Amino acid sequence: MPHAVVDYSDSLTGAFDRRAFALELHALVVEILDTAIGNCKTRFHRLEESVVGEGTDARAVVVHVELAIARGRTPQTKSRLTRAVLELVERHTAKAAGLEVHASVDVRDLGEAYTKSVATP
User: Which top-level group of life is the source organism from (predicted)?
Assistant: First the structure.
């Protein structure tokens, strides 16, 4: 916890520094949720195809961040985190020249049955 999954359109690949985004995202999550940075995990899914609206604008691309966090955070904290992550996405995709970036963020609680394990050799 927290777990982030970032879906992004293939055409953003050259303009979206995923590692830099993840590192800033982790620092942001630590600040807002008061958690240890070692708990933060981010996975990226490159979308080979994405369609926005009627699909007539090839410049339209997608970035969607799903952030699953431990239960018990207030709606205000979740809202603050959502806004901050959206701003981070906007900053990290600002260099996507000629593209119309449709960015979204969804912050949700992990399920009651969530568990984890960290194995060391």
Answer: Bacteria
> CA–CA separation, 75 vs 34, rounded Å?
15
| 115 found inside a domain | no
For residue 113, what pLDDT is reported? Answer: 84
Say how far apart CA 28 and CA 88 lie, in whole Å: 9
118 part of a folded domain:
no
Cβ atoms of residues 108 and 69 within 8 Å? yes
pLDDT of residue 116: 84
Number of domains in the chain: 1
What would the pLDDT profile of 18-64 be if each residue is shown by its tens digit?
999 999 999 999 999 999 999 999 999 999 999 999 988 888 999 99
User: Contact at 8 Å (CB) between 21 and 88?
Assistant: yes
* CATH value at residue 66: 3.30.429.10
